[in-house]
Amino acid sequence: MKATRKSFGEALAQLGEKYSNVVCFDADLSKSTMSALFAKKYPTRFFEMGIQEANMIGTAAGISFTGKIPFICSFAAFLTGRFDQIRMSIGYAQANVKLIGTHCGVAIGEDGHSQMGLEDIALMRSIPGMVVLQPADDKETHECIEWAIKHIGPVYIRLTRQEVKPFNLDSFKPGIFQKVVDGEKVAFLSTGGMLEEVATAATILKSKGVMSPAVYNMSTVKPLDSKFMGELAKKFDEFVVFEDHTTMGGSGSAIAEWISESAQTPRRVKRYGVRDQFGESGTPQELLEKHGLVAQRIVDNLSNK
Amino acid sequence: MNQVIFETWAKETPIVREAVLKMIHQCNSGHPGGSLSMIEILYSLLAKSGVMKHNPKQPDTNDRDRLVLSKGHGVPALYAILNKVGYDITNEELMTLRHLGSRLQGHPDRVRIPYMEASTGSLGQGASFAQGIALGYKMDKNPNHVYCIIGDGESQEGQIWEVALSAPHFKLDNLTLIVDYNKAQIDGYTKDVMGLDPLAKKWEAFGWNVTEVNGHSYAELNKAYRNRVKNIPNLIVANTVKGKGVSFMENEVGWHGKAPNDNELKTALEEVRKNFQIGLEA
Fold first, then answer.
1. Does one domain contain both A152 and A6?
2. What percentage of chain A exceeds 90 in pLDDT?
3. How far apart are CA B193 and CA B211, in angstroms?
4. A159 and A226 housed in the same domain
5. Is the bond preceding residue B198 a cis peptide, omega within 30 degrees?
6. CATH number at residue A202
7. Are the Cβ atoms of B119 and A62 closer than 8 angstroms?
8. In terms of domains, do A17 and A110 share one?
9. Are residues A52 and A185 in the same domain?
10. Interval A216-254: pLDDT, tens
């Protein structure tokens, strides 16, 4: 078990050796985003910005045009909260900046709403050219980080505070969802901190004879791969997307948009996530239960439909 | 740098002011006031024998100083000067300002024109962007300099004061911010909208190498550009006149973001064409 933010810190520290033009910025959260691991190893390539997220975004955009590949790190809420800076200085300028948003979702627990990244996918997805990724586990986080370094253009990577279990998935390919559990008719899509609960729910639903859902790891939110999505839409009648994020504009919306506009045959899409509400303090477990994002709640919701 | 060069520049810039007015007139939109106030600031940077090291025929060379126009609404002035000093913006292209498909967007777009260096227009952001370039130059031991022009209204943005804090922290002596202090913005005079004074003292208190000059004096601007202190970033408060060179636009808040009509253009062009004195103020 490992938090994907920790996997990120380890990956960047490791990959920094191979990619000497990678630099890293943080805004006084390096011990939480785990960029501190990079900072320790490459002090001259790490810039502590203090609590200045807007300035960090602009500075990273500028330095990217001197041939560096900057990673900018903060809590997803604080980073994507500076939307205008990301939209203009990174998005519109097509700056080769990699954005790392940690502490996503209600699963951060006790700190409450202000620290929870709940709208970050919706915001980042709306910027032309922005790639949006959310890796499932340690291995995939490493793969996503290296892919982001090689990719020319802005990439947003959403990471968890909580530990997640390893899934031994096929290698990360952008736009391709790896199969986690076999099934038919219904496909569950999820990733990051949610995937284990969703896979467990699928197993319980199968054993109860309610349905036999497949589970896929949706680690790419944007861009979706049209060929892959087309195959998926042929294979399944219904899609259920689970995410620790607002249902408005998130991963579920991305799937709903694709299916409603591009699927050959009408398909149903259901979205589970935080429904037009603010986060709050509580234990991660309590909050995930409240929003229907634990295995038992998923089973209950889908059994009573 | 001597008086002869300044006099040459003063003879060369009426055509720039003319172009700015025509560009804004032909698309019936744009910002004449804040374009005309920074002509001398820009020209003394970019003109042949100006302070900036750059090559209009090879704009992307690594061996160049860079200019970020953070107050992006003043971009007609920059387009006109880049045209004048030999970049690939033609006279005909100048008159496509703000047209669909034109490279000359209403505000700078570095994707369409890479030598714009930054994409600006949402105020406050260009200064951070310039700081990032300066930081990259430091890392690479690239000795070149980064200039960034910010507005006085723009200086009300919090992000400007984040840079005020961070550039001295990073010891970016290869960065010069120039405030086009023309004292007016959309909703009124800056002192009434959200006062900035004492502006120079504020920057000094943040640890910058501050010079206050007449922004329509080539002599003073040049001296200020060359006044550098090791490990300390530079800030020039350039006192300017909004709408400089067109009597009915000067210091008139209403000319921040309004195009002249046919008659106004005619009068304005007559005024700027025969004025070869701007820039030579003591």
1. yes
2. 99
3. 25
4. no
5. yes
6. 3.40.50.920
7. no
8. yes
9. no
10. 999 999 999 999 999 999 999 999 999 999 999 999 999
B51-105 pLDDT, tens digit per residue, is 999 999 999 999 999 999 999 999 999 999 999 999 999 999 999 999 999 999 9
Domain for residue A234, yes or no? yes
Per the CB < 8 A criterion, the answer to whether B40 and B278 are in contact is: yes
Nearest to A188 by CA among A270, A119, A290: A270
CB contact under 8 A, B117 and A65: yes
pLDDT mean over A153-163: 97
A69 touches chain B (CB under 8 A): no
* B26 and A CB contact within 8 Å: no
pLDDT of residue A305: 59
* pLDDT value for B139: 98
Does the active-site annotation cover A53? Answer: yes
Q: What is the DSSP string of B234-247?
A: EEEEEE--TTTT-T
Q: Please indicate, yes or no, if residue A170 is contained in any of the structural domains.
A: no
CB contact under 8 A, A62 and B134: yes
Beta pairing, strands A178-181 & A214-217 = antiparallel
Cross-chain Cβ contact A58/B128 below 8 Å: yes
CATH number, position A111? 3.40.50.970
Q: Does B264 touch chain A (CB under 8 A)?
A: no
DSSP assigned state of A87: I
CATH level 3 topology of B3-273: Rossmann fold (3.40.50)
Tens of pLDDT along A172-206? Answer: 999 999 999 999 999 999 999 999 999 999 999 99
Rounded to the nearest 10 degrees, the angle between the axes of helix B39-46 and helix B14-26 is 120
- The alpha-carbon gap from B246 to the nearest alpha carbon of chain A, in Å, equals 33
Give the number of domains in chain A. Answer: 2
DSSP per position, B147-198: EEEEETTGGGSHHHHHHHHHHHHTT-TTEEEEEEE-SEETTEEHHHHH---S
Question: Which segments of chain B have a pLDDT < 50?
Answer: none
The last residue of a domain, from among A99, A130, A164: A164
Using 50, 70 and 90 to split pLDDT, how confident is the model at A72? very high
Chain A residues with CB-CB distance to B166 below 8 A: 49-50, 52, 55, 59
**Closest to B222 (Cα-Cα) out of B200, B238, B206, B242:** B238
Across all residues in chain A, what is the average pLDDT? 97
Of B126, B133, B165, the CB nearest to A65: B133
Give pLDDT, residue A304.
77
**A251, A223: one domain:** yes
Q: Residue B127's closest chain A neighbor by CA?
A: A58
User: Pick from A141, A164, A187: which residue ends a domain?
Assistant: A164
Q: Would you call B135 an interface residue with chain A, using a CB distance cutoff of 8 Å? A: yes
- Enclosing domain of residue A6: 2-164
State chain A's maximal CA–CA distance in angstroms.
59
**B101 has a chain A CB within 8 A of its CB:** no
CB contact under 8 A, A50 and B165: yes
Residue A246 within a domain: yes
Average pLDDT of span A80-84: 98
Percent of chain A with pLDDT over 70: 100
Regarding whether A191 and A134 lie in a shared domain, the answer is no
Nearest to A63 among B136, B162, B163 (CB): B136
| pLDDT at residue A110, rounded to an integer | 97
Does the distance separating the beta carbons of A55 and B162 come in below 8 Å? Answer: yes
Are A204 and A284 found together in one domain? yes
Co-location of A188 and A256 in the same domain: yes
A173 inside domain: no
